[in-house]
Design brief:
single chain; alpha/beta; Rossmann fold; four-stranded antiparallel beta sheet; 16 strands; about 30% strand; globular
């Protein structure tokens, strides 16, 4: 009996050690200045077809030109943690039902173990439901979403809060899918501050700009790049013909051309911000009409099922935050890699 008791006691002591050994994704170690860097990788051929079946030894990771030891490797079989962020500002009121239908269709495409968080943002961020694999519950939550008729659109604040709070202590493949039709207006965090925060994270951000007004394709040139905004050469009209332009009683009438240019420049700024969020995190930016959102969601899901994730321990001995360059190579010809290009670490 004493032997059995001793054996059970030893098993209890050993169990935590075994459980800890199964955690192959290390944390930041403040004492040794080791910082675990997660690197999402999308591999495709020159025709854009995703390449599957790659192994850990097929990849080489460099930080600042120095080869790193890959200590973590996972494929698309690793469950996803997805934060679905929907713009519920007033401008989306005529299309919100189509957005909800497309989002519910997206949830149907997820694997059973994938977890989804649903959040809305306008003048504030609202968590409709936290991370859960109860996909039926997620769809029910989507149905309850309503438009906020008042306030602005605090996109930067919303993204920062999801990154800093909702994804805090969350491990695995982390993804944000952000849908909006406009530019940030009134956030306390600036665009550059947010981009710096995103460099420190390992979250892929897929941004989707949908237009609720005029044809946004006119904002793009023949190469698919943003056209630069132009200043109006047309002078503002004075209320009175001979009124001094410097008079405090002068009233200016903004022309339709100036209104269109302002709207156009706002859209250019919105698209640029969304593109940079996606580019810096190895995600992807989409321009879409509301009617095509189901197709966009399907494309995002298809890409996530082909994603690899690498990890290494970066030794950062600096006294403050530093930006490091990251590059990934594959020992196969005709492979195009998309991954994060930088990481910000801290002591």
């Amino acid at each position: 009996m004493k032997i059995i008791f001793i054996s059970l006691f030893l098993m209890i002591l050993i169990l935590p050690v075994k459980l800890q050994a199964q955690n192959t994704e290390p944390d930041t170690n403040q004492e040794t200045n080791n910082f675990f860097v997660s690197v999402p990788v999308i591999a495709s051929d020159s025709e854009g077809r995703y390449i599957t079946g790659l192994k850990k030894d097929d990849f080489t990771v460099y930080q600042d030109g120095i080869k790193q030891k890959i200590t973590f490797f996972s494929t698309y079989n690793e469950p996803l943690k997805i934060a679905l962020m929907l713009d519920t500002s007033k401008s989306s009121r005529n299309v919100i039902n189509k957005i909800k239908d497309a989002a519910k269709n997206f949830v149907d495409l997820l694997n059973p173990n994938d977890e989804c968080l649903v959040a809305t943002f306008d003048s504030q961020l609202k968590i409709i439901n936290p991370f859960t694999s109860n996909h039926k519950g997620v769809k029910n939550s989507l149905q309850q979403i309503k438009i906020n008729e008042y306030g602005g659109t605090l996109i930067y604040n919303a993204v920062n809060q999801i990154v800093q709070k909702s994804f805090k202590n969350v491990k695995g493949r982390k993804v944000i899918i952000l849908l909006t039709d406009g530019n940030d207006f009134g956030s306390s965090i600036t665009k550059n501050e947010l981009l710096n925060q995103l460099e420190e994270s390992d979250i892929l951000i897929y941004t989707v700009f949908f237009n609720t007004g005029k044809d946004y394709i006119k904002l793009m040139d023949s190469d698919g790049k943003l056209k630069k905004g132009k200043q109006s050469k047309k002078p503002r009209k004075k209320e009175k013909e001979n009124q001094n332009i410097n008079s405090p009683d002068a009233v200016y009438v903004i022309s339709e051309e100036e209104i269109e240019l302002n709207e156009r420049n706002d859209e250019i700024e919105a698209i640029d911000s969304l593109q940079r969020m996606s580019d810096i995190t190895a995600g992807k930016f989409y321009r879409s009409s509301v009617l095509d959102l189901k197709k966009v969601f399907k494309n995002i899901t298809g890409e996530l099922t082909q994603q690899y994730r690498l990890g290494y321990n970066s030794k950062d001995t600096a006294s403050s935050k530093i930006t490091h360059d990251i590059s990934v190579k594959v020992n196969r010809a005709d492979v195009v890699i998309r991954t994060r290009g930088t990481v910000r670490t801290k002591r």
